[in-house]
Amino acid sequence: MKLLFERSVPGRGMDLLPACDVPAAEFDPSLLRGAAPHLPEISEIDLGRHYTELAKQTHGVNDGFYPLGSCTMKYNPRVNEEMAALPGFTQIHPLQPIETVQGCLEALYTAEQLLCEITGMDGMTLQPAAGAHGEYTGLQLIRSYHLSRGDTARNKIIVPDSAHGTNPASASMVGYKVVSIPSNPEGGVDLEALRAAVGPDTAGLMLTNPNTVGLFDPNILEITKIVHDAGGLCYYDGANLNAVMGHVRPGDMGFDCVHLNLHKTFSTPHGGGGPGSGPAGCKEFLKPFLPTPHVKKTETGYELYAPEQSMGKVRSFYGNFLVVLKALTYVLTLGKEGIPEASAGAVLNANYMMSKLVGSYDMACNGLCMHEFVMDLSRQAHDYGFTAMDVAKRLLDFGMHPPTMYFPLIVHEALMIEPTETESPETLDEAAEVYLKILAEGMEDAEKLHHAPLNCAISRPDEVGAARNPVVRYTFEA
Amino acid sequence: MSNIPAELKYSASHEWVKEEDGVFVIGLTDYAQSALGDIVFINLPEEGDEVTAGESFADVESVKAVSDVFSPVTGTICAVNEELLDDPAQVNEDPYGAWLVKVENVTATEELLDAEGYAAVVEAEEA
Amino acid sequence: MGSYIPATREERQKMLESIGLTSMDQLYSIVPEEALLKELNIPEGMSELEVAQKVSAMADENKKFRSIFRGAGAYHHYIPSIVKTVTSKEEFLTAYTPYQAEISQGVLQSIFEYQTQVCELTGMDVSNASVYDGAVAAAEAVLMCQERKRSTVVVSGSCDPQTLAVIKTYCGSRDVPVVVIPAVDCATYLEALKAALTKETAAVYVQSPNYYGVIEDMDAVVAAAHEVGAKAIMGANPISLGLLKTPGEYGADVAVCEGQPLGMPIGFGGPYLGIMTCTQAMTRKLPGRIVGQTTDHDGRRAFVLTLQAREQHIRREKASSNICSNEALCAMTASVYLAAMGPKGLRQAAESSAAHAHYLAAELEKIGFKLRVNKPFFNEFLTDCPVAPEKICAALEAKGILGGLPLDGGILWCCTELNSRGDIDALVAILKEVCA
Lengths: 478, 127, 436
Hints:
The structure holds three protein chains of three kinds.
Chain A: H1 44-56, H2 78-84, H3 87-90, H4 102-119, E1 123-125, H5 131-148, E2 156-160, H6 166-173, E3 177-181, H7 191-197, E4 202-207, H8 220-229, E5 233-237, H9 250-253, E6 257-259, E7 280-282, E8 294-298, E9 301-305, H10 321-357, E10 362-363, E11 373-376, H11 378-383, H12 388-396, E12 404-405, E13 414-417, H13 425-444, H14 446-450, H15 463-468
Parallel strand pairs in A: 2-3, 2-4, 4-5, 5-6
Antiparallel strand pairs in A: 1-7, 6-7, 8-9, 10-11, 11-13, 12-13
Helix pairs in contact in A: 2-10, 4-10, 5-6, 10-13
Chain B: E1 9-10, E2 15-20, E3 23-28, H1 30-36, E4 41-43, E5 50-51, E6 56-61, E7 66-70, E8 73-80, H2 83-86, H3 89-93, E9 101-109, H4 115-126
Antiparallel strand pairs in B: 1-2, 2-3, 3-9, 4-6, 5-8, 6-7, 8-9
Chain C: H1 9-18, H2 48-60, E1 67-68, H3 81-87, H4 90-94, H5 105-122, E2 126-127, H6 134-144, E3 152-156, H7 161-172, E4 178-181, H8 190-196, E5 201-207, H9 218-227, E6 231-236, H10 247-250, E7 254-258, E8 274-278, E9 290-295, E10 301-306, H11 312-315, H12 328-366, E11 380-383, H13 389-398, E12 401-402, E13 405-407, E14 410-414, H14 421-435
Parallel strand pairs in C: 1-12, 3-4, 3-5, 5-6, 6-7
Antiparallel strand pairs in C: 2-8, 7-8, 9-10, 11-14, 13-14
C-alpha cells in the first residue's frame, strides 16, 4: 500500500476554492512560514481510490463478527448517522444566541433525562468526550464533594485488581492514590479485603458490574454499603452496562455516580478509536459540582447555566454533541421495552455461544455469564504450546475479529468474548465452529498457529522493532 | 538455565549489585531480562536522585508490559547508564554488562543474596 | 418499537432452552431482588420513521444562518465533498481501535498519514493520534511538561477562555499551580509573563492567533520560557498555519490546535479534534495513542500502535494520562481534508480567510466600528461598537446572518473563505442602517 505522500505528483490537485474577491491581507514577512508544508498533491480519483484501498484493509462491524470483550461492538444503526448529519445540527454554531439553538438543547436535555432514568441517576453531563474522560469527570465529582465538606483526608480510591487500566489512571489524574484490592475467584469483590481497605481516607470505590470476568457481583448492595458506611462514595464504570440496562440500575445498586460509553452501550460507532462520548451521571447531592454549562428546562424554553459549585470545564462547549444525537436516536428507537430486550439479548447470546465452547475451552468461571465470558488458554499453552494470542491471530484468517486478549489481567491466557445482541444465532453457530476448529488445529500442530494469520494483508508485525526505534511519521526526501 | 555470576550479590526482586570502592553498581539479572522479554525502553532516574532500599527507582518497558525496578540499597545516584536510553536491548543481550545506575553514600542495603541463594530464588519461581 | 436483534422470539426461546433455561428473566436471577428494576420509565420505542421525524423536528427548532461571521473557537470553513464520502465508509466508521494490526492496516496507515501531515503543518517532529479537542490538547500539553522539580504552569489570558477553563480543571485536580497573566490590549502582557517565570515553571502556554485574533510575539514568548528552562507550548489555528509561521519555526516544544477547521462541521461544538504535536525529545511524554511504522514477519511495511507502555492500559495508575478513546475518525477527516486541499489549497483557504477578515475590518472602520487594537491579526478581530452589540446582532439575525460574538463591550468578528465580498458588503449595509 502506497502512502498518500507516495502518490503525490507536483502540480496535481483539485480546484476547491474560488479566486479571492478582495485584496490580499498583508503580513510582515517575519510572521509567515518559511516553506509550504509537504501535503499531498493528488487528484480526486486517486485520493478516493487510496481510501477505498485503506477501507479494504480495515475490519469494521459490517465486515464480520466482532466479539471484542468489554468493547460492545454492536451494530451501528444507519438512522443514527442520518440524524447526526442533518444540517439543522451540523451547521449550528456552538455560540449562537440561546433562542436559536433550542433544538440542540432539547436534544441534550432529552438525552440526559433518558440516560438518567436508565442509570438511576438524577443529573448528567454530556461534556466528556470518551469513557476515560467521563471517569475523570465522575471522580472529580467525588473529589469536589469531599472538598466541599472540608473533608481533605479522603485521598484514596479503591479499585479491584480486575479493573480496566483506565480506572487507576483516572484516579491518579484527579490526584488520588490507588488502593488495589484482590478479587475473589469469580472476579468479584473480596468483601473482607474491601472491609480492610476502607477507612477515613477512602474517597471512593470504582467498580464495573458485571465485572471484567463477565459476572454480576451478587454482593453488590453489601459492597456499596461498606463503602458508604466508611464515608466514601461509589463510582460505577459503565463499560459493561450493556449487560444490565433496563434490568438493574447503578443508582439502585448503591452507586453515587457513573460514566457511560455511548460508543459501546448506545450504539454509536467507534470510528477506529473515536470520537466517542462518555457522559458522567450522578445523584442529586453531586449535581452542584457538574461541569459548566449544563442544560435546564424552564417555562420559556431550554437554558444553559453554571451549576453553583461546578468543577469547571473538562472540554470546550457541550461535548461530542453529534455523537450524543446518535445515542439519543438509539434510545428513542428502542424505548422502554427495547432497552431491556437488548441487554437480555446480549446476555442470551453470550451464554449461548459459551455453551457451544464449554468443555472444549476452559472458562475462567463456571455457570451463567452476563454479556461476555472469559476463556483461559493456560492449559493449552502448557500442554500443546499455543496461546490465546495464537488463537486470536488464527481467527483473523476466518474473517472474524478476535476477542479481547490478555484481559482481565487476573486470567493468564485470557480471551474475552462479547458477542452483543445484534448477532444472529447462525453467526454465533458459525463462530463457535471456527473456535473449535482452531482448537483442534492447535492440538494437532501448534506450530501452524504460531504463524497465523496466513491470509491477511500483513503477517505478524515486529512490535519490538517499532517500539525500540519509533518511526512515527513519513520522512520526505530533502 | 539462567546465568548467575558468583562474584555478584543479588536481591530477591532480581537486581544484581556490585560494590566498587563504596559505589554500588546495580543492574537486572539474566533471569529478569529473560522473564521481561524484549525490552523496548528503560525509564531511568537522574543523577543526584535519592533511592531507598526496597523502593522502585526505574521501570522497564516491554511491548505490552511495564515492570518496576527496585533499589537494593539506600543512597544517592552518582551515575546513570544513558546508553540504555538509546539501546535498551543491551539489557537483554548483556545483562551483567548493561548496568542501570551507580549509587554512592549508601546508608542501608537490603539483605542481599549470594549467587547460591539467588539461584534458589530463581528455581523457586521457575517451579 | 425498533430493535436491532436479529433472532425472533421463537429462536430466542430455543436458544434459552439449549442452555437449560425457560425464560429470559432467569438470565438475571443472580441480581438481588431488591435491586431489580420493575419498569423502565422512558417512552415506548418507535419505528425508524417516527424517530426520524421526531429528531428532525428538533433540528428544525434550530436556526441555521446562511452567513456566519462568528468564530471564537468554532470555524465555519468549506468542507470538500470527498471528505464526507471517505469518512462515512462503514469500515472506518465502525472499526474499533486498531489493536489487531493485521486487519487494521487501513486505519493504522491513515493515522500515520495524519501524524505526518500535522507534523508538517505545525513544523513539529512528532504527533499522537489525537485527543478530544483543542482545549483538552492544551491541558494535556501542560501536564506532559511536568517535571519533578518544575510544576508551575504560566498561561497567557489571551487564550480561548474555554481552553483556560479546561487547563485549570486538569491542573487543579493534580495540585499543579496555574498562573494566569491577564491579557492587555488583546494580547499577552509580555513583561508580566516574563516576571512570572521562575525555575519552578514547567511550561508557558500561549495561543496565537489568540482569542482576540491577534498574532502574538511568539519569538519573545518562546525565548522567555527557554530562558528559565521551561517548555514553550503554542496553541495555533491549523488553517492559519497554511500561511503563518509555525510553532516549530518559533522553537516551541509542544504545539496544540483545535483541529475542527480541517474539515469538521461546527456541529454545535463537537465532535472536534485535539491536535497534539511535540519535539523529538518529548516523544515519550506525549499522551495517547501513537502509530509507528515497522515491518511484518515477511519484511513488508506495516503499521502498529507503538510506545504503548506509556499508556493507561499498561501503566495503570502510573500513566501520565488516562486517555484511551481519542477522535480517530476526526483525525482521518483532517487528513483527507489536508490531502484534498494540498499545499496550495490550504494556503488559499488561509489567505482568503485573512483577506476577507481584513476587508471586513476596513469596511467596518469606515462606519465607526473601530478596531480595538492595531496589531497584526489573522481572521478574527475585536471592534468597538457604536451601538449596543446585542442590537447589532439582533438586526443581523433577522436577516439570517450570525454576527460576531459580543465580547468586552465590543464584537469579535470572524471571516473565512465562505464569507464572500458580497456577504460582507451586505452585512456592512445592514450595520450602517442600524447605526444610522
